[in-house]
Design goal:
Layout (H helix, E strand, L loop, with lengths): L7 E5 L5 H10 L3 E5 L13 H7 L2 E4 L4 H11 L8 E4 L5 H13 L3 E4 L2 E2 L2 H5 L3 E7 L1 H12 L2 E8 L4 H29 L5 H8 L6 H12 L8 H17 L5 H15 L43 H4 L34 H9 L1
Helix pairs in contact: 2-3, 3-4, 7-9, 7-10, 7-11, 8-9, 10-11
Length: 357
């Protein structure tokens, strides 16, 4: 029996954001089917992007770069129909976003450009903000699903590519904010003033922001667990720099932010949070930052006699037990990952400051 696809949502890409959006949608009572390049023991994990489209009329794509977006859309394309809406949530070049839209629309399906702002905590709590480009009728149909993982939807316009420009523009402000916060902390420390007072002083300052309130404590603690990584911020800043050259614009602050992020990447800290730029001035982190670990797929379980999955018979194959759309068994909590503590820096940057004062 065919599934009621209009009530299903597909998620492709189970990274920091995609996995949490899937969880937020399930909390709202939606049936979610997922796929990731690296198989994971996730509820309703299916065999391919095409199978996601076979099960869901709305497919949300959370991948990290231009090449991944183009490849996913190529794999989706044969399964798309006029009933489908594909929403792309990656920050990529406007050219790649337009190319993806063209492939989708060639099949008669509809495409929404939907980059977002918000980190993993926002994704977990359904508090992302989406910047939308594309057809108004498609947005009207997809809006309830987008609202399930967001607190606001900002419509940029129907022209594909404009929402990406807006997302990149906001991210260069964020990157520059983290960089200048690191410089301000360095200046305060060199003057022999307690850096904790900087945070207090900024709270009543007109230039204070959510970014500063999130990132300054991370810098002070030397804790760079990734909420948004150096490598991804660098990618976005480079997109902005490329657009600036196309428009014959000089963006010196953006160029400096790009250089500082690149320096962090070269130090092997690409998976750290982008607030790690503070380590230019405070070079001894309190701990080694590692990327969020990939979940490993369980070994397929032996099939019981007579056991079958209806939708897989028609495909002439059967997925392993861990990938079937059944409710997963609870897994024991993972052992906390050990971190390598830097010697004599238990106080993070504050300890470093007190010994340098």
């Amino acid at each position: 029996m065919a599934r009621p696809k209009s009530k299903n949502v597909g998620i492709i890409g189970l990274g920091i954001i995609g996995s949490r959006v899937a969880g937020a949608l399930r909390k709202r009572g939606l049936q979610v089917f997922v796929w990731n390049r690296t198989p994971r023991p996730e509820q309703n994990f299916v065999g391919s992007p095409g199978e996601v489209a076979e099960l869901c009329d709305v497919v949300q794509i959370f991948v990290s770069d231009d090449e991944a977006l183009r490849e996913i859309v190529r794999q989706l394309s044969p399964a798309l129909t006029a009933q489908h809406i594909v929403t792309a949530h990656c920050t990529v070049s406007p050219e790649s976003m337009r190319a993806a839209a063209e492939l989708v629309e060639r099949r008669g399906a509809r495409f929404l450009e939907a980059p977002f702002t918000g980190s993993k905590v926002a994704a977990e709590n359904g508090q992302l903000v989406y910047y939308i480009g594309g057809d108004e009728a498609a947005l009207k149909q997809a809006r309830p699903i987008l609202e399930a993982s967001s607190k606001e939807i900002v419509v940029i316009g129907e022209k594909i590519g404009d929402a990406t420009v807006m997302k990149v523009a906001t991210n260069i402000v964020t990157a520059a904010t983290a960089q200048v916060a690191a410089e301000a902390l360095a200046l305060v420390r060199k003057a022999g003033i307690s850096t904790e007072l900087f945070g207090r002083a900024m709270k009543s300052n007109a230039s204070n922001s959510t970014t500063l309130e999130m990132k300054v404590p991370m810098m002070l603690a030397g804790d760079f667990e990734p909420h948004f990584s150096v490598k991804h911020m660098l990618k976005d800043v480079r997109i902005a720099a490329h657009l600036a050259r196309d428009y014959s614009l000089d963006l010196p602050v953006t160029e400096v932010a790009s250089d500082m992020l690149l320096a962090e990447l070269k130090q092997g800290r690409g998976d750290a949070d982008y607030s790690s730029v503070a380590q230019k001035y405070f070079p001894a982190p309190a701990k080694v930052v590692r990327p969020e670990p990939e979940k490993k797929a369980e070994e397929p379980k032996p099939k019981e006699p007579g056991e079958a999955v209806a939708d897989e018979k028609s495909a002439g194959r059967e997925r392993p037990a861990w990938a079937r759309p059944a409710e997963p068994k609870p897994e024991p909590p993972a052992e906390p990952e050990k971190t390598a503590e830097a010697p004599n820096l238990s106080g993070g940057i504050r300890g470093w400051f007190s010994r340098r004062s």
